[in-house]
Amino acid sequence: MNMAPEFNRAINSSLNEKYTYFLAGPLVAGQRQALIVRLRVLLEAGVPGYAILVLLPDRATARRFRQQVDELDLGPYGAVDLQTYYGLASRLIRLFWPLVADSAGFAAPERPPVFLNYETAQYLMGQLSEPLLAQGYFEGLSMRPQRIISQLLDNLNKAAVAGFALGEVAPRLAQAWTGEASRLRLYEHVQICIDLYRGHCLQHGLLDASLVFEVFNRHLVAKDEFWRYFTERFRHLLVDSSEEMVPVAHDLVRRLLHQSDSALLTGDVQAGFRIFLGVDAPGAAELQAECQESIVVEPANCADPHLTAFAGRIGEKLGQGRTVESAGSPRLAVVDLVQTRYRSQMIESVARQIIELINKGVAPGEIAIVAPHADGVLRFLLAETFRAADIPFAVIRRYETLREEPVVRACLTLAILAHPEWGQSLSVFDLAEALERALKPLDPLRAELVARHLYDLRSGQLKNASELNAKMRERIGFAAVERYEILREWLESYRAEEPGAFDHFLRRLFGEILSNCELEPEDAQVYSKLIASASSFRQAAPAMDLKGTDIGKRYVEMVLAGVVAAQYLTDVDLEEAPESIALVAPVYTYLLSGHVARYQFWLDIGSMSWWDPLHQPLTNHYVLARRWNQDERWTDAVDFSIRNQNLYRLVRGLCLRCRGGIYLCASDSEGRGEVQDGPLMMAVQQVLQERA
Amino acid sequence: MINKGFKFSQSSLTTFKQCRRRFLLRYLQHMQWPAPLTDHLSEWEQTIQRGLFFHQFILQESLGLHVEAAIHKSDDPLLRTWWDNWRKQAPDMPRGELFSETMLSVPFGERRLVAKLDRVIFAEDGRVLIFDWKTGRRKPKQAEYVDNWQTLVYRFVVVEAGALLTGGHPVDPANVSLIYWHAQYPQAIQPIIYSSAEHEAARNRLTQKMAEIEGLPDEAAYAKTEDLTECRRCEYHTYCERVSPRGEDWDIDEDELDWDLLPEAEL
C-alpha cells in the first residue's frame, strides 16, 4: 500500500515540541505506513523504544504492525510497546494491582487478580443467572441461555467502554424503549443479573473485560502515582485507526495527547466497523479536532474512482449523505453480477469465475471473497473446487464456538470416556468422529465400525478389541485395532489414577495419544488453545465454587453448550496466506485486515445478514453508547436509519479496499430457502439500472 | 528460510545448539505442540507461575509499590522464602539510572539480536550492571553461566545498544558486569565481568553462528539432535517420533516467561 505524500510533513515533524498531528482518510491512504515510518524516525533519532506507545485497534493488527517494524532497517533500538487498549489496560492493572485493587473495590486486594477470558466469563454469568432463570427471569424470550448470557456480558462491557456506571444500564435501555411494556421487566432482570455478576467478581478478585476497562479507566488512570509513571514513561504517542477504538480509549489518548512530546494519530472517521464492541468513530473525529494539525486525504485521491463512485451511489440509495461528484462510473466498479437460482450454483459460479481470473494471470492473493457468514457449505464447496484446481485457499473467520472444531469435539468425547463419573452420554456418531482423529490414519467408515462394535452404550465404556470377530478385525484393519487398544488401555489406566486437573488430562492426552506424525500442525494449534482455555477456566474455578473433577465436567458442558471462544482458534490471517484466495467472514474482519484486493467477490448480497443486526432484545449497542442522547427514543425509524448507515459503512469500506472491481453474487434463495432481496441487493439493483 | 528482521535471542541460539529441528519448529514455523515435558504437571505449572510472580514482585517493588501484603498472604511457602532471600541477600544495587524489564534490539545484517533484560543499572560510578533473576529448578553452576549464550548475548547487546538508555553515551565493555541472582540460591553465581576483547570475540561468534544458521538450505538441514536426552526436555518429541520417557530434569525457559502468554479475552 502506498502512502499519501501529504503525510510526510507529519512523519518528519519535531520530536519534542509537543506537536500533535491527525492523519485522516481511508486506510488506503497509507496512514499505517505513515505510523511505521514515524516510528522509524523516532527510533533513528535515538528515542528509546520504551518511551513510545503505539496503540492499535486489535491484536491481529498489532501482530502485523510488529512484523513490519521488525523488517525495518534500523540500528539498535529499545523494544516499543505495541498495544491494544485492552492489552495495555490489563498489563498495567496486573503491574499496579497493589495500588489499585483496594480502591477498585476488590474484597481481598492482597490476592493476585484472576483475569477471566470470555469463555469463563460466559460460564460464570451462566452459573449466577441460572437460579434467576429458574425463577422466571427472561420468561417469554425464545432464546437459548447462551444468547442471553452473551447479551448480559455485552451490557457490562458497553457500560465500561462508554465509561458510565453499571447501574445505568437498565435505566438507559428502559428510557429509550418505545415498544411493549413487558420489555421493561426484562431490563430490570438484566440489571439484577449484571449487578450480581459484578459483585461476585469484586468479591473473588476476578477481572473480566468490563472490569479491566473500568478498573483501568476509572481507578488506575485517576491515581497520581500511576499517571506520573505513565506520562514520564510514554513520551511519544502513535495511534492507529482511532475510529476502531472505544470511548475510554479515546479518553486516555486525549489526556496523553497534551502531555506527550509528540503525537501522531490516524483514523477514518467514516469507518468504525466494530460497533458491537462499542467503538466510537465520532470520538476519533473529536480527537482529530484536538490535534494541532490535521492532514486529510480524500478517497478520490487514493482509491479507485469507479469503486468510490459505486460506494457513494449505494450510500445515496440507502439515504446516507449526498452524492459526491466523482470522475468514476459506478457501473464500471462491478465486473459482474452473479445471480443464480440456488446458493450452491452461486458458489460454483464464484469458483468458476475465480479460476478464470487466475487463468488470465491474476494472482490468488489478489482475490478476496467476503461474506456475512462463512458457513460449512460455502467453505466446503469452495475448498473442494480450489483444491481440485490446485489453487491455494484460506478461510479466515472470527468468533467461532469451540465446539465447531472437530479437534475440540474429539478431545471432549475422549474426556467423557475417561471420566465416567461425569455421567455424560455419547452417541456413536460422536465417538466415531473422535476415533477418526485419535486413531489416525482411520477413515470415517472404519471409525464408525469401531464405534458401533466396540462401544458399550450401557456402561459408556470401550470394549476390549478381543471382542471383535476375525472378519470385523480384518475390515477395520489390524493396525487400527492395535491403535484402538493403546487408546483403550490408556483411558483405562487414566481412570485408575488419582484424578488431576482437567487441562493436565488434555495435555497428557495430546502428548501420549494424539500427537504423532499424522497430526496436522493446525490441529495442534487448536489443541493448544483448548488446553489454554481449560487452564484459564481452572484458574477461576475456586471463585466459581468448583473443585476436583467437577471442573472438567463443567468445562466440557460449557463448551458443548456452544460457548464462544475467547481466542481465535486458528491464527490464519490474510498476511499469513498472501498467496491464497481468502474467504473472509464476517465482513468487518476483512475491513480490519488492511488487505487491498484487486478483485472482491461479495457473496449473498441478497441476504438480510448484510443489514440485519443480531436479534439482541436485552441490549442495544447504540443506546448504551456514550454518544446516545438520553432524551431520544429507539424507534423503528432510528433503527432503520442506523441499519442503513452501517450497511453503507461496510460497502464504503469494501470499495475503498479494492483496486480492480467487484463481483456481486447472489442466489434467489439462500440455503434455508429464504428469498434474497435484502437492502444491499435492492440498492445495487437501483444503482446498476441507472443510466451510465 | 529465515525472514528479514528475524529476531535471534539467547533462547533461540541455545535451542539451535541443543537441536536444530527444535529451532526450526519453534522459531521459524512457530509450531504449537502442547505435549507435557514432565509427569509432574502441577509442579511444572507452579514453577512457571512462581517465577512470573517473583519477577513481578521485584518489578512492583522497584516502582515503589507495596508488595509485602501480597507475599505474606501467598499460599506458596517457596515464594515467601524467595522473597525473604531477596530481602536479606539481594545483590548490591549501586545508585544510578535503573531500567526494568527492558528489551533491546541490535541489527545483525538483515536479522536482529534481542535481549530481554530484567534490570540494568547505569551506576553513577560508571559501572553498567545487568541483572537477571533466576527462578528455575536447577541449582545454577557458575561455569555453565560463564559460557552460555545468555551471558554472551546480554553483555553484547547492552554494549551495542546501551547508549539508547544513557542519553547517547557509549557503553565501555570493561564497565559491564552481568549478575545472575537465583531466588533459591542467592549466592550461587558470582558477577561475570566483560572486556573489549570479549566483546569482539562475541561479535565474531555471533556472526559465525548466524551465518551458519542462515546458510542452512532447507528444512532437512535442520536436523534432529543426536542427543536423545534433549528429546526428553522437548515438547516436540512426539512430532519428531522420538518417543522417550519424559525426564525428571525438566526446567522452565525463563526467557520465554511472559504474562502475555496467558489466555485472556480478545478485544
Q: What is the makeup of the main sheet of chain A?
A: 6 strands, parallel
Number of helices of chain B: 9
Q: What is the CATH topology descriptor of chain B?
A: Lambda Exonuclease, Chain A
> Care to count the β-strands of chain B?
6
Low-confidence stretches of chain B: 259-267
* Oligomer kind: heterodimer
Portion of residues in helices of chain A?
40-55%
- Give the distance, in angstroms, between the N- and C-terminal Cα atoms of chain B: 33 Å
What is the number of domains of chain A? 4
Instruction: Provide the CATH top-level class of chain B.
Output: Alpha Beta
Principal-axes shape call of chain B:
globular
Mean model confidence by pLDDT of chain B: 90
Secondary-structure-derived class of chain B: alpha/beta
Structure at a glance:
The complex is a heterodimer of chains A (692) and B (267). Chain A is an alpha/beta fold and 692 residues long. Helix content of chain A is 50%, strand content 12%.
Task: Describe the 3D structure.
Chain A is an alpha/beta fold and 692 residues long. Chain B is of the alpha/beta class. Chain B is built from nine helices and six strands. In chain B, strands 1, 2, 3, 4, 5 and 6 form a six-stranded mixed β-sheet that branches. In chain B, helix 7 (149-161) crosses helix 8. The longest helix of chain B has 22 residues, at 41-62. Chain B starts with 6 loop residues before the first strand and ends in a 35-residue tail after the last helix. Chains A and B meet through helix 3, strand 3, helix 4, helix 5 and helix 23 of A and helix 3, helix 4 and strand 2 of B.
Please supply descriptive tags for the structure shown above.
heterodimer, A: 692 residues, alpha/beta, Rossmann fold, six-stranded parallel beta sheet, 17 strands, B: 267 residues, Lambda Exonuclease, Chain A, six-stranded mixed beta sheet, 6 strands, disordered C terminus
